[in-house]
Design brief:
Length: 413
């Protein structure tokens, strides 16, 4: 029986193209050491790169192999062209330090490029001083996990994205740390993919930039100290849960920017210390629930062309302005939220305010039109406007109310 088992396994390996696959140990040397080793390898070989510095770039991986680096393995592109170009399915690249890709205004040079491949894994690598970090194009079913990608550009025009994905499906981006690039993560035409447990911090433009991508999820990520936190544009059915949008502060900074997006969910996220927590333009049929919006300049700016959204059971705490709009009507539902600026009472002690709450005030509208008016925030004039607002409520959209304001914040931790 043992003989039959060996024959059976041999047949399986032949079908998979794995006969003759082995582990090869590669040592640093002169010239294209890694490129030669890949050229000499058979499909499904494992190439173990011993520690040291490998000075080469334009390394083509055109067959299914595994490259694993010993601790201290460095591949230095010497500020030249791309370093790894993967054009084969079923490749794994792990535990390498990859650094020094030169800036180009003619080509999106990347430390690691995946081109028309599937089932590729890029795991636990450290990328330093690269123009683009990891660049996927027209690829499917790939995993980017546990990588640290740190750029060095000081100008947006000289910076690429840490992770850039164009035309992909079922990509998983998880547990990466991304900083000092143009965008931390860039998705364009990427469907059915997951972004989870990443830290995208101190990037020049967006922590995450999302364009023309559908049926995706991003969960449990941190977007902090970026030009803006996250932009989700021209996309449908996006699920956003348990993320943190922190300290994205500046003249045009947002925690979350939504533009022409429909049928998604924004659930149990934290928006803290952003110029605008959530900015929505052309956002429709979203459920925004159980989020914590605290200490933002404007908690939520919901433009008039955003319709049929449900804003339910969120905490609005310590924001300068709670809600802003540019319309005299409101076509969205606000219900059951906690508003720290609510001045009503609860006579029957059921935990719900007896009077509805109007989260939009007249001074917010004025400062939106005349930003310099912010200097009057704590002046007697603002108190006078509040009195006028109660006397002439027609200045505020009549339907923009929460008829069930909560007396106590929800426990969302």
């Amino acid at each position: 029986m043992n003989g039959w088992k060996l024959i059976f396994l041999a047949v399986i390996f032949m079908q998979l193209g794995m006969v003759g696959a082995q582990t090869r140990v590669i040592h640093p040397g002169e010239g294209a050491v890694i490129a030669r080793a890949i050229q000499e390898a058979v499909p499904h070989d494992t190439l173990f790169l011993s520690k040291g510095i490998y000075r080469e770039n334009a390394i083509l991986i055109d067959k299914p192999v595994v490259l694993i680096g010993e601790a201290g393995t460095v591949v230095d592109g010497q500020m030249g062209d791309e370093i790894f170009v993967i054009v084969s399915d079923s490749v794994s690249l792990e535990n390498l330090t990859v650094k020094n890709v030169g800036v180009s205004y003619l080509k999106d040079r990347a430390a690691i490029r995946l081109n028309r491949v599937s089932n590729v894994t890029i795991r636990n690598n450290r990328l330093l001083n690269t123009f683009f970090g990891i660049y996927l194009q027209k690829s499917t079913d790939c995993v980017l996990h546990g990588n640290t990608i740190t750029g060095a550009a000081e100008e947006e025009s000289k910076a690429g994205n840490a992770i850039h994905i164009w035309q992909g499906e079922r990509i998983r981006v998880s547990h990466n740390t991304l900083s000092q690039h143009r965008d931390g993560i860039y998705f364009e035409f990427v469907d059915e993919s997951v972004i989870t447990h990443n830290r995208s911090i101190q990037n020049m433009r967006y922590g995450l930039h999302f364009m023309f991508s559908n049926d995706d999820r991003y969960e449990s990520n941190v977007f902090q100290h970026n030009g803006s936190g996250v932009a989700v544009m021209f996309s449908n059915r996006i699920h956003m849960e348990n993320n943190e949008f922190l300290d994205n502060w500046g003249g045009a900074s947002y925690g979350l920017l939504l533009k022409e997006i429909s049928d998604g969910t924004i659930h149990r996220n934290r928006f803290r210390s952003n110029t605008v927590g959530i900015y929505a333009e052309g956002a429709n049929r979203l459920t925004i629930s159980e989020n914590q919006l605290e200490n933002n300049g404007k908690a939520m700016d919901m433009k008039g062309n955003s319709m049929d959204n449900r804003i339910l059971e969120n905490n609005f705490i310590g924001n300068t302005f709670e809600v802003l709009t540019n319309s005299k009507t409101n076509l969205n539902q606000f219900a059951g939220n906690y508003w720290s600026q609510y001045a009503g009472y609860d006579m029957d002690k059921d935990g719900v305010g007896d009077l509805p709450h109007r989260p939009l005030n007249l001074f917010a509208l004025i400062t939106d039109k005349v930003p310099a008016a912010h200097m009057l925030l704590h002046s007697f004039l603002v108190h006078s406007l509040e009195v006028a607002e109660r006397m002439f409520p027609q200045f505020i959209p009549e339907q923009l109310i929460d008829s069930q304001p909560q007396m106590h914040p929800y426990d969302l931790d």
